[in-house]
Design goal:
The protein is of the alpha+beta class and about 150 residues long. It is built from one helix and four strands, in the order ββαββ.
Length: about 150
Amino acid sequence: MHETAYQITTLTPHQPTANPGLLPTEIPPGVQMVTLPGGMRTLAYTPQQAPPAPPVPVAQPIPTWAKTTALLTPTIGGGIAAAGIGLSYAAPGLIAMSEALWAAVALIAAAAIGVPMLLRIGRTTAGRGSTHITQNITASGMFGKANGTINHR
């Protein structure tokens, strides 16, 4: 068999090339200028890189005030419910007590007005005894002048 040998030639970086290269607008998509490990720069297809993944959110700890509020909410609600039930059982007694208090206020007001009046009446009757007044009035004629005397005993 007959084999044809092909000669492989490479250009060193110092040699000028007959082809000046491609303009940046002529480079097809997906092709970039890369530097090889030997220092030589060439065009090569590069794999499409996926956009970076968004950062994973880190779980934030729950603030202490939120925990406290969450724990106190059922307690406060239960206390309000218990107070409502207690007031519903106590309502008849509270109504009776309020009526008794109004009666006491009326008694105090009556005493504040009545006691001084009773004391005044008691002083006037006890200090003097009974008084007899006698009047003698005389008049002459229908339109005459009247004269009279008053005797206290």
